[in-house]
Write a structure and sequence with these properties.
The complex is a heterotrimer of chains A (319), B (335) and C (323).
Chain A: H1 5-30, H2 45-52, E1 60-62, H3 68-73, H4 78-85, H5 119-133, E2 139-144, H6 151-162, E3 167-173, E4 176-177, E5 180-181, H7 182-185, E6 202-206, H8 210-225, E7 231-236, H9 254-261, H10 265-275, H11 281-304
Parallel strand pairs in A: 1-2, 2-3, 3-7, 6-7
Antiparallel strand pairs in A: 4-5
Helix pairs in contact in A: 1-2, 1-10, 1-11, 2-8, 4-11, 5-6
Chain B: E1 3-8, H1 17-20, H2 28-45, E2 49-52, H3 59-64, E3 73-75, H4 85-96, E4 101-106, H5 108-117, E5 123-127, H6 140-152, H7 157-160, E6 161-163, E7 166-171, E8 174-179, E9 182-186, E10 204-207, H8 218-222, E11 234-239, E12 245-252, E13 255-267, E14 272-274, E15 280-284, E16 287-292, E17 298-303, E18 308-310, H9 312-321
Parallel strand pairs in B: 1-2, 1-4, 2-3, 4-5
Antiparallel strand pairs in B: 6-18, 7-8, 7-17, 9-10, 9-15, 10-11, 11-13, 12-13, 14-17, 15-16
Chain C: E1 2-5, H1 6-20, E2 26-28, H2 44-48, E3 53-55, H3 60-72, E4 78-80, H4 87-98, H5 101-104, E5 114-119, H6 134-138, E6 144-146, H7 151-163, E7 168-173, E8 180-183, E9 196-199, E10 204-208, H8 211-225, E11 230-234, E12 237-239, H9 243-253, E13 256-263, H10 268-280, E14 289-293, H11 302-308, H12 312-320
Parallel strand pairs in C: 2-3, 2-4, 4-5, 5-7, 6-7, 10-11, 10-13, 13-14
Antiparallel strand pairs in C: 1-8, 6-12, 9-11
Classes of the chains: A alpha/beta (319), B alpha+beta (335), C alpha/beta (323).
C-alpha cells in the first residue's frame, strides 16, 4: 500500500481538524456556552483519522459517546456539528441529539452513541445489509476498552464472525473506563487477544501512529470487502482530557498523561511528512490556519443560529 | 548464585501479520502458561535465582499465581515504557545484575531487542512470535532445564551454546541498530505498522542465516543456499524485476511470495554492503525500524560477535552424556 | 377468502411481503429450516433461502440491534424473539437504539423494522416465558405497538407493520396461534392505530386486547343473558392508540371495563382508563373497572396459572359491579 500524497495530506488535515475542533469545544464548554456534557477526543486523533481514511463515503461507521473525531474523520461538516453541540436548530440533528447522537446517513455515519457497547449490534446490521445487497461496502465499529467488556460487543464479534460479515472492529483502548483502569476491569491487556475466541484476526497497533492505524484498517477493510469476514484492530491510545469535560481526573497521574502527550500523534506525523517532503513547513502552517479559521466560522455559525422552536419538539418521533 | 533472567515480551505475536497473513494471535495468557513451565524447568535445573523484566500485563507474576517455586523469582527495577526498549534495557540490567542466561520469550524482533541490550550473556530465545527463525519453537519446561544448566555451569558453555552472527546496521558510518536474521531495505519512508510483507518494495535483502525450511525473509535465500546460524558468513541478495530467477518462499505464516532474485553475493565478516536507497527504511528481522533520512547513506556489515545462543538440543544431549538426570540406585542396569 | 389459523395468517403475511419486497429478511433464533419456535416462519426458508431467512446465534441483543442497523442501512428486517420475555437482554437495542434513532438524529434516519414476539401465559411455561409486556413498549416514544387478536387482524396488521417506516413491536399471543378465522388469500393491510369493534352493544364498553378479546366476547354473551349489551372494542394497536373509537364507544355506553392479560398495575388499562377519565369522565355513570393479571410473576402449576390468567368470569364480574 503506497499512500498518495493527497491521502497523507488529507489525514494531516483531519487530525488537525479534530484537534482544533475539540480544543474549541473545551474552551466554550468551560465558558458555559455548551449545554449538557461533552467527551473530548483530544489525543486520540490518529485512530479515527487512520481508520476512516481507509473507508469510502459509502462505507458505514458506528461511533461512541466520544464520537466527534470519528464523525469529522468520516467527513462530518464542522458547522453542522458545532451547531448541534451548541443545541441549535441548524445542527445535524436540529438540536435534538447533541454531542452523543450526531449522525449523517449520507456519509455512512450511523450515529454516535450514548450507550457504551451500543454500536456493535447496529454495525452487524449495517454490515449484514451491505452483504445482503452485495454493495461491497463495509461497516466499521468504533468501540472503547470499556465497551469491549459489554456483552453486546462480544455478541457482535461472535455474530460478525459466524456470518462472515464485512465488518471491521476498531477498538480504541485509552486505558480507562471513566475512572476505572483497564487492569481492574479485565484480566487481559490486549483486547485483540479476544479475537482468537471468534476465529478472527486480532491485531495491536500504536493508536498514536496514524499510518500504523491506517495500514491495519486498510488491510482489514480489504479482507472485509473480499468476503473474508471481520477483523479486530486494537489501537493503544490515551485521552488527554477526563472522561467528560469537568472530570478532575483524580484517578490517574500527571506523569502518565505527560508520557502520552509526548507521543502526541500530530507532531509525530507532521515531522514524517516534512521529512519525507510530502509537506512543507509553510504548507503545514497554512493548513492549520485554514482549519482554525473554519472552526471559528463553525462557532460563529453555531452561535448565530437560532435555538430550536418548541413547536418542533414532536417532529420526527415517528417517520 | 546462579541467576537466570526471564524477558517475556507481552506485545509479541499481535502485529498486522495476523491480518495480512495467517499468523496466530499469541495471547498473553499462553505466555503466562509458558513462563510457568519455564520456571518449573529452571527450578529443577538447579538455578538458584530468577530475575524477570516487569511488564504491563504481569506475565511472570501471573505465572506465579499457580506455582510456588522454591527459588526466589524477583522483578528488576526498571521503568516500563511498553515498547521494545523495555526488552533492551532489561537485557542490559540483567547483565549488570549477573544473570548467567537470558531466556527471551518473543519472536525474532524480541530477541533482537534483547541483543541490543546485551550480547555477552548466553541467550535462550523461546518463540511466542510470528516469524521465528531465531527463537526455538520448543517446550518451555525443557528450555528452562537447558537455560538453568548453562547458568549453573553444570555444563560448559562451549558444549551448549553457539556464537551467532548478526548484522550491524550503519548509518553514515555509525552503528545504529542490529539484525539477527535479516535486514531488508524497504523502499518507503513510513514505518506505519512496521511488519513487512510487500516484497516488491524490497530491493535488497541481507541474511545472516537461511535454510530450506526457514520462514520469513530468510526463506528467500533458503531456497538457494544454506547458512547455519553459527557459520561466519552471510548473503546479500538483490531483488526485483528483470531477473532470470524467481524464488517461491514462505515469507510469513500462510503467505507465499514469488520473489525475483537478481543476484546473490556471499558476505564475509566485516565486509560492508551499501544500501542503495535514500531516503528509505531498513526492516530488521521483519520490522520496519531504521529510517534512512534523505541524503544519509546506510550500510550493512556482518558481525561474527553476535549473541551466544543456547542450543537446547545440544545442551540436553550433553546433559544425557553426563547423566545429569539419571539416578543410579546400585541396582542392575536396564538391559 | 378461506379459513386460516392465526399462525397461518402470520406466515402468509410474511410470505406475501417477502415476495413483494426483496429488502425484507427474517432474523431470529431457529426461524430457518426449523420454522420458528412456534412455527410462524414455517416454509419460508425453503422458499426464500438462507440469505433471507436467517438463523441467528442465541444473541437477542444482536438480533434486535442488527435489525435496527440493517433497517437504517436500507433493508426492512423482520426480527423474531422466541418469547417476549427475552427482550430483557435486548432492551437497550430496542428502546435506546431503534426507537430513538430517528428523533435523536433530527429525522435523518428511518428504522423500518418489525420485531415479532409471542407473549402470554397458558402453556405452563412459567415466569420467564409467559409474560405480557406491552406496557413496557407503550411507554417508549418511537415504537409502535401492535397486538392482534384475530387471524384476519394478524395478517393485515403484520403487513402494515412490515411496511411501516418505524420500529414496530408486534406482540402475538401463543394461545392464539391455533385460533381459526376467515382470512383473505390476497395481501391486504390494516392501518396501524385503528381499533376494531368486535361486538356492538349499548350498555358497557369493554376494551380488550389480544387473548382477552375472546374472553370479552364470551363475557358479552353471558351478560346478554342478563340483558346487558356489551360493546367489545379491540384497539389492535396500543401505540398509536385509537382514542377516538374508545371515547366514542364510552360516550355511547357510559361505562368502561378494560381487560388485558398484562399485570393490572401499570398495565395498558391504566392508560386507557386515564384517557377516558381525562376526556370523557362526564359521560360515565359508573367507575371505570380494569381486569388484568395480579401483581405477581406468572406461576407454573396449571391451577395457579389458570387462576392467574384473567377470564370471562372476571370480566363479567367487573361489568356486573358497575351495571
Amino acid at each position: 500500500m503506497a499512500l498518495s500524497k493527497k491521502t497523507l495530506i488529507h489525514m494531516y488535515e483531519t487530525m488537525n481538524k479534530i484537534r482544533l475542533f475539540e480544543q474549541k469545544l473545551q474552551e466554550f464548554f468551560a465558558a458555559g456556552e455548551i449545554p449538557g456534557f461533552v467527551h473530548l477526543y483530544l489525543g486520540e486523533e490518529a485512530v479515527a483519522t487512520g481508520a476512516c481514511a481507509a473507508l469510502t463515503d459509502k462505507d458505514m461507521i458506528t461511533s461512541t459517546h466520544r464520537g466527534h473525531g470519528h464523525l469529522l474523520a468520516k467527513g462530518g461538516d464542522l458547522k453542522l456539528m458545532m451547531a448541534e453541540i451548541f443545541g441549535r436548530s441548524t445542527g445535524y440533528c436540529k438540536g435534538k441529539g447533541g454531542s452523543m447522537h450526531i449522525a449523517d446517513m449520507d456519509l455512512g455515519i450511523l450515529g454516535a452513541n450514548g450507550i457504551v457497547g451500543g454500536g456493535g449490534p447496529l454495525a452487524c446490521g449495517a454490515a449484514l445489509a451491505a452483504k445482503y445487497k452485495k454493495t461491497k461496502e463495509v461497516a466499521l465499529c468504533f468501540f472503547g476498552d470499556g465497551a469491549s467488556n459489554q456483552g453486546t460487543t462480544q455478541e457482535a464479534l461472535n455474530m460478525a464472525s459466524a456470518w462472515k460479515l464485512p465488518l471491521v472492529f476498531v477498538n480504541e483502548n485509552n486505558g480507562y473506563g471513566i475512572s476505572c483502569p483497564q487492569c481492574k476491569s479485565m484480566a487481559v491487556t490486549d483486547i485483540a487477544d479476544r479475537a482468537a475466541a471468534y476465529d478472527m484476526p486480532g491485531v495491536v497497533v500504536d493508536g498514536n501512529d496514524v499510518l500504523a492505524v491506517n495500514e491495519a484498517v486498510t488491510e482489514a477493510v480489504k479482507r472485509a470487502r473480499n468476503g473474508e469476514g471481520p477483523s479486530l484492530i486494537e489501537c493503544k491510545t490515551y485521552r488527554w482530557r477526563g472522561h467528560f469535560e469537568g472530570d478532575a481526573c483524580t484517578y490517574r497521574c500527571t506523569e502518565e498523561l505527560e508520557a502520552w502527550m509526548a507521543k502526541d500523534p500530530i507532531p509525530r506525523f507532521e515531522a514524517k511528512l516534512i521529512e519525507s517532503k510530502t509537506l512543507s513547513r509553510k504548507d503545514a502552517e497554512k493548513i492549520k490556519a485554514d482549519i482554525a479559521k473554519a472552526v471559528d466560522e463553525a462557532v460563529a455559525f453555531a452561535k448565530e443560529s437560532p435555538m430550536p422552536e418548541t413547536s418542533a419538539l414532536m417532529d420526527d418521533v415517528y417517520a | 548464585m546462579s541467576t537466570v533472567a526471564i524477558l517475556a515480551n507481552p506485545s509479541s505475536g499481535k502485529d498486522i501479520r495476523r491480518l495480512v497473513a495467517h499468523g496466530s494471535v499469541f495471547d498473553n495468557q499462553e505466555k503466562v502458561r509458558m513462563v510457568r513451565r519455564l520456571i518449573l524447568g529452571l527450578e529443577r535445573s538447579g538455578a538458584t535465582r530468577i530475575l524477570y523484566m516487569p511488564d504491563g500485563y504481569g506475565i511472570v507474576p501471573r505465572a506465579l499465581n499457580a506455582i510456588s517455586p522454591s527459588i526466589p523469582v524477583e522483578a528488576v527495577e526498571m521503568p516500563i515504557r511498553n515498547n521494545q526498549t523495555d526488552t533492551s534495557i532489561a537485557a542490559g540490567v540483567m547483565e549488570t545484575l549477573g544473570a548467567q542466561c537470558l531466556v527471551v520469550l518473543g519472536g525474532d524482533g524480541t530477541s533482537r531487542a534483547a541483543c541490543k541490550g546485551s550480547v555477552a550473556v548466553p541467550l535462550l530465545p523461546l518463540s511466542t512470535g510470528t516469524n521465528n527463525v531465531f527463537p526455538l519453537m520448543g517446550e518451555a519446561t525443557v528450555a528452562g532445564l537447558a537455560a538453568g544448566l548453562v547458568a549453573t555451569g553444570r555444563l560448559p558453555r562451549e558444549d551448549c551454546c553457539y556464537r551467532s552472527c548478526m548484522f550491524d546496521i550503519l548509518l553514515d558510518g555509525e552503528v545504529v541498530d542490529l539484525a539477527l536474521v535479516d535486514a531488508a531495505v524497504y523502499d518507503d519512508v513510513f514505518l506505519a505498522s512496521r511488519a513487512i510483507w510487500q516484497i516488491d518494495k524490497v530491493p535488497q535483502l541481507f541474511l545472516t542465516r537461511c535454510g530450506a525450511s526457514s520462514i520469513g525473509l530468510s526463506a528467500i535465500g533458503g531456497q538457494l543456499r544454506s547458512i547455519r546460524p553459527e557459520e561466519p558468513r552471510g548473503l546479500a541478495l538483490r531483488l526485483g524485476e528483470g531477473s532470470p530467477v524467481t524464488v517461491t518462499a514462505v515469507i510469513a505464516p500462510g503467505m507465499f511470495a514469488d520473489v525475483p532474485v537478481r543476484s546473490i553475493t556471499e558476505m564475509a565478516p566485516g565486509e560492508i554492503f551499501c544500501v542503495d536507497v535514500s531516503p528509505g527504511l531498513i526492516a530488521v528481522d521483519g520490522e520496519r525500524e531504521v529510517e534512512i533520512p534523505r541524503g544519509s547513506r546506510a550500510a550493512v556489515r556482518l558481525n561474527t560477535q553476535g549473541p551466544l545462543v543456547v542450543d537446547v538440543e545440544r545442551t540436553m544431549a550433553a546433559a544425557r552424556e553426563n547423566g545429569l538426570f539419571v539416578n543410579r540406585h546400585n541396582r542392575k542396569e536396564p538391559a | 377468502m378461506s379459513e386460516k389459523t392465526y399462525l397461518q395468517a402470520l406466515n402468509e403475511a410474511l410470505r406475501q411481503e417477502m415476495e413483494r419486497d426483496g429488502n425484507i429478511l427474517i432474523l431470529g433464533e431457529d426461524v430457518g429450516r426449523f420454522g420458528g419456535c412456534f412455527g410462524v416462519t414455517q416454509g419460508l426458508f425453503d422458499q426464500f433461502g438462507e440469505d433471507r431467512v436467517k438463523d441467528t446465534p442465541i444473541t437477542e441483543s444482536v438480533i434486535v440491534g442488527a435489525a435496527a442497523g440493517a433497517a437504517v442501512a436500507g433493508l426492512r428486517p423482520v426480527a423474531e424473539l422466541m418469547f417476549v420475555d427475552f427482550i430483557g437482554v435486548a432492551m437497550d437495542q430496542l428502546f435506546n437504539q431503534a426507537a430513538k434513532m430517528r428523533f435523536m438524529f433530527g429525522g435523518k434516519a428511518k428504522v423500518p423494522m418489525t420485531l415479532r414476539m409471542p407473549q402470554g401465559a397458558g402453556i405452563g411455561a412459567a415466569a420467564q416465558h409467559s409474560q405480557s409486556l406491552e406496557s413496557w413498549f407503550m411507554n417508549i416514544p418511537g415504537l409502535k405497538v401492535v397486538i392482534p387478536s384475530t387471524p384476519y387482524d394478524a395478517k393485515g396488521l403484520l403487513i402494515s407493520a412490515i411496511r411501516d417506516d418505524n420500529p414496530v413491536v408486534f406482540l402475538e399471543h401463543k394461545l392464539l396461534y391455533g385460533v381459526s378465522g376467515e382470512v383473505p388469500d390476497e395481501s391486504y393491510a390494516i392501518e396501524l392505530g385503528k381499533a376494531d369493534i368486535k361486538r356492538e352493544g349499548a350498555d358497557v364498553t369493554i376494551v380488550a386486547t389480544s387473548q382477552m378479546v375472546y374472553a370479552a366476547l364470551q363475557a358479552a354473551e353471558k351478560l346478554k343473558a342478563d340483558g346487558i349489551e356489551a360493546e367489545v372494542v379491540d384497539p389492535r394497536c396500543l401505540q398509536p392508540l385509537d382514542s377516538a373509537t374508545i371515547l366514542d364507544s364510552v360516550k355511547k355506553t357510559h361505562a368502561l371495563v378494560v381487560a388485558h392479560e398484562a399485570v393490572k398495575f401499570g398495565g395498558p388499562g391504566a392508560e386507557i382508563a386515564a384517557l377516558v377519565a381525562e376526556e370523557a369522565v362526564e359521560y360515565l355513570d359508573a367507575p371505570i373497572k380494569r381486569v388484568g393479571a395480579p401483581f405477581c410473576p406468572v406461576p407454573f402449576s396449571p391451577p395457579l396459572e389458570q387462576y392467574y390468567i384473567p377470564n370471562a368470569d372476571n370480566i363479567v364480574a367487573a361489568v356486573k359491579s358497575i351495571r
